[in-house]
Amino acid sequence: MRPWQVLESVSTRQGILELRRRGERDFLMTIAGRVLMNSQHHRSEDVLSDVACAELGKKTRPRVLLGGLGMGYSLRAALNHLPPKAAVTVVDLNQTVVDWNRGPLGPLAKFPLADGRVQVVVADVAKVIAKARGGSYDAILFDLYEGPHSVINRDWHPLYGSEAILRTRSALGPDGIFAVWSEEADPPFEERLKKHGFTVTRHKGGAGGRLHIVYLAQVCELPEARPRPENRTPPETEPRPRTRPSAPARRRP
User: Fold this and answer.
1) What is the pTM of this model?
2) Which end of the chain is more exposed for a tag (fewer CB within 10 A), N or C?
3) pLDDT per residue over 45-79, tens digit each?
4) Considering its fold, how many domains does the chain have in total?
5) Is residue 225 part of a domain?
6) For residue 210, what are the contacts with CB-CB under 8 A and spacing of at least 6?
7) Mean pLDDT, to the nearest integer, of 227-241?
8) Is residue 53 part of a domain?
9) 55 and 177 in contact (C-beta within 8 Å)?
10) Strand order in the sheet with 15-22
11) Mean pLDDT of the chain
């Protein structure tokens, strides 16, 4: 088997970001020594976009936000589904990843960044969503490293916590779609989605081996809080008997 060749290595806040190649079309992207993505295995990324865009129905001008560019597979899958007048905003933390997709990684997904429907923003997707006006998007997709994980992503997480979910819901229009790629199932994340106004279904990312998860959530009406019954004293039908005041407690000498 051919050894990996390092094409480029850059320092980031998350660690060393590296692109490796073996042969003509076998690429590997790593961060701090951990695999981010392999060009030979992207079925779950395709499923993410497939299930999300299928729910957009017959919208002629859908507005889609994709957090995480990767090797461009999830973007390509979305573009294959979306109509000519769609608008897709791709947000990635690293300009280097964008440059790789315009360079050596481009042919893998047929240069999706060259599509006229696509706008690229180099930023933190959590901040982009926080600044978005209400109802800005018909669908928000997260194709991010690891995804939600109950061990490290608690209720205050900037992407998967309760406040983050509420901000995402606000940025979506009526019946908006929130699709999330994850390495594994995260029941607490599912419960937070349901609690904050989403229906949730879970999709398998492929067949065989370790299965990644795709969450498909859709905006729904928040359940109305039931009013608490007033604590009224029932009317007295008989006079209360008088009671003697209790004697004060004696202190010990």
Assistant:
1) 0.85
2) C
3) 999 999 999 999 889 999 999 999 999 999 999 99
4) 1
5) no
6) none
7) 41
8) yes
9) yes
10) 5-12, 15-22, 26-31, 34-38
11) 87
